[in-house]
Known about the structure:
It is a single chain. It is built from 7 helices and 15 strands. It is α/β, with parallel strands linked by helices. It has 2 domains: about 1-190, 3 Solenoid (UDP N-Acetylglucosamine Acyltransferase, domain 1), CATH 2.160.10.10; about 200-269, no CATH class. Strand 14 and strand 15 form a beta hairpin.
Amino acid sequence: MFRxxxxxxxxxxxxDPAARNAWEVLTCYPGLHAIWAHRVSHWLxxxxxxxxxxxxxQLARWLTGIEIHxxxxxxxxxxxxxxxxxxxxxxxxxxxxxxxYHGVTLGGVSWNKxxxxxxxxxNVVVGAGAKVLGPITVGENARVGSNSVVVKDVPPGxxxxxxxxxxxxxxxxxxxxxxxIAQRLGFDAYGLTRDMPxxxxxxxxxxxxxxxxxxxxxxxxxxxxxxxxxxxPELELSKLELPEFCAEGTKTEAGQHEPPAESRARNAV
Length: 269
């Protein structure tokens, strides 16, 4: 038991740079208190003392602001940062080294008996205010962005954001910059990174870039026709200005921004 407690305390230092010493973590982190209370409640639940298990979990909820059903299955080194408003349902399953932030709900979408809450793989990070709903699976090493609503399975290593949540970053070998950030911070706070792509902005940017390429080709065709027959007027199109939020282009698989389509077309000519 004491070995598990020491392991929990070490996991806090690994994932919270604000932690200063073991005594502070032991006494001032409600997420840890909720997890330790859940272990007692889960033991009571699995040994048939269900009312006592629920009573203990309600006491922990009153003391910490975190509600974990005694039936939930939770792995090792589980960390709830800040903690207030976290809800974990009865049939939820959580792997090892998972991190939840405040306001997270692992809830159900059905009143039917049986499996109705999500399963989180190892090393998952769920950002503040996110809702993961239904008997879905969030793959290991996945990230759920703050305030997202996840209702479908999340592939391992992916990052999802939005309502409903969409995959914005598939699993791939990390770049040198990402490796340096990971070594310095040890985790992605709130399930987000500073250079996380915006799926809506990327989609609009891709459409506008495609339109720019078509405009360039149309102008080139009209100039060639004018050279062949002077009666054909040359076509001059006004420049299409990209909105500021997608002017830098969309991200490639390597994580680098592509130059605007106009410059690419000019270089090709």
